[in-house]
Specification:
The chain has helices spanning 25-39, 86-99, 124-133, and strands at 10-13, 16-19, 46-49, 55-63, 66-68, 71-73, 75-76, 79-80, 138-144, 150-153, 164-170, 172-177, 188-192, 197-200, 209-215, 230-236. Helix 2 packs antiparallel against helix 3. It is 16% helix and 32% strand. By secondary structure, it is an alpha+beta fold.
Length: 244
């Protein structure tokens, strides 16, 4: 359904772009159904236990590689990690192309090959190259109930510094996007609604970010999340050897 008042796309920080309503209803339904399949055991959705003994309030299932603090592994409780599907990689490339579409360049710092030679963008050619060469091989699928939160953190366990793609489904989440130096200010808070896209790369690839609040009952009907809650998919390039 078209919003009564369209929400414009915005640059949250250099290299970080928010595209509201990027996924249509059909694509949202497909992703929700896929998430339901991925959530099933074995290697299904679970709460992650942190080294200090705490348990994360979100529930997570991983594709391609399993994230555990603070590394990626190939098995979960003796079971292989679920495969990362090719159609999801195609969606990730579409997302990067949309975020870094021709027009005002979202960042203008020099290209930087990064630790694994992944493009960080920079020039207009850099942003287009990032879309063409983007090859995500890992996804974290997080489910937030009304009480779940995600503390400010950096996505730094990947060897590649290619952009991160974030897709939102269901209830609105208040997304806090900060700086690369600390969890303190400056930051910007943005409400991510169902179907919204965020891509962050370049100078913002290691920005601290998190989810401070879920808005219960704010999600759309008809996408398969009638029980409420928020699903978030983040796609990344691990930069790891696939033969490991």
């Amino acid at each position: 359904m078209t919003a009564l008042i369209p929400r414009p796309r915005s640059v949250l920080a250099p290299g970080a772009v928010h595209v509201p309503g990027w996924l249509d209803e059909r694509e949202q339904r497909r992703l929700v159904q896929a998430c339901r399949e991925w959530a099933r055991p074995p290697a299904g959705m679970r709460r992650t236990r942190l080294p200090g003994g705490g348990v994360m309030s979100v529930q997570t299932v991983c594709l391609g590689w399993h994230w555990e603090p603070y590394r990626y592994v190939r098995q979960v409780d003796g079971h292989p990690v679920k495969a990362f599907p090719g159609w999801l990689a195609d969606l990730g490339r579409r997302a990067v192309a949309e975020a870094y579409a021709p027009g005002p360049v979202p960042f203008d710092e020099p290209n930087d090959d990064g630790p694994a030679g992944g493009p960080l963008g920079g020039s207009p050619n850099g942003t287009r190259d990032a879309a063409r060469s983007y090859a995500p091989d890992v996804a974290l699928v997080n489910f937030y109930d009304a009480d779940a939160r995600m503390g400010l953190h950096q996505d730094r366990d990947e060897r590649s510094r290619a952009p991160v793609v974030s897709l939102s489904l269901g209830d609105t989440g208040v997304f806090r996007f900060g700086n690369t130096e600390s969890r303190g200010r400056p930051w910007v808070d943005v409400e991510l609604e169902s179907g919204d896209l965020v891509v962050f790369g370049g100078p913002s690839r290691l920005a601290y970010h998190g989810v401070t609040r879920i808005v219960p009952g704010s999600g759309p009907g008809g996408i398969g999340l009638d029980g409420g809650g928020r699903l978030n998919l983040t796609l990344r390039e691990s930069g790891l050897d696939a033969s490991c």
